[in-house]
Amino acid sequence: MPAIPANKPYRVGRSRTGLGLFATQPIKKGTKIIRYFGRLLDSRKKKDDAIENKYLFELNDRWTIDGSMRKNLARYINHACKPNAESDVRPRKRTVIIRAIKNIEPGEEINYDYGTDYFKAYLKPIGCKCDACEKKRKKKRAEARAEKLRLKAKAERKAQKAAEKLAGGKDAAKKKAGAAKGNGAAKANGEAKANGKLPNGEGLNGHGAALGAKPTARKARGAKPAIVAETQATEQQSHASA
Hints:
Blueprint: E1 10-15, E2 18-23, E3 32-36, E4 39-42, H1 46-49, E5 56-58, E6 63-66, E7 78-79, E8 85-90, E9 95-100, E10 109-112, H2 116-123, H3 131-195, H4 226-241
Parallel strand pairs: 7-10
Antiparallel strand pairs: 1-2, 2-10, 3-9, 4-6, 5-6, 8-9
């Protein structure tokens, strides 16, 4: 790793995407932080135009800086969708200066926006890992978890209501059956009273005869009426006295 002069307000360190450039001192907004430099490539030359790497910084249609050399510490600055620095491109001077657009605190990573073309070619296929995009992903994951919990709670409430409705239906059926049974018993008692008998076969007030029933008189065999018997007795007394 290249040596950094002690008076420079940055250092190379580990970041979320690999290596990055971090502030070691407070950097005020508008401060020139570092120059992006390297070999100049002329797109009119086939040899230069054929070079491909992720450290190419295009100045204009003709000139491009190949910043892959290790001495170019600016190459460690990572992309950010909401950066704290920007690239100040000067095509005529064929230079690029990284300038702070916010106050940067010690320990904070320095970053700038690489541009739409670079983003589409290199970052979009693998997913941008800058703080802003990471926050968006975390927010989406949190929203997805919240939505999942909401749907789960909704399903549980629906199941609980269905269970309560089913239990209520069973209770209503039991009450209805009990009422029907009570009505049947009352009807049976009413019919028994009308017939003079209770359902257990006993007569009302302990009497065996049904209400309104007329007793049938039976004549004993050989029994004579009382008048005939008295006449015969008188005749027998008359014969005895004669």
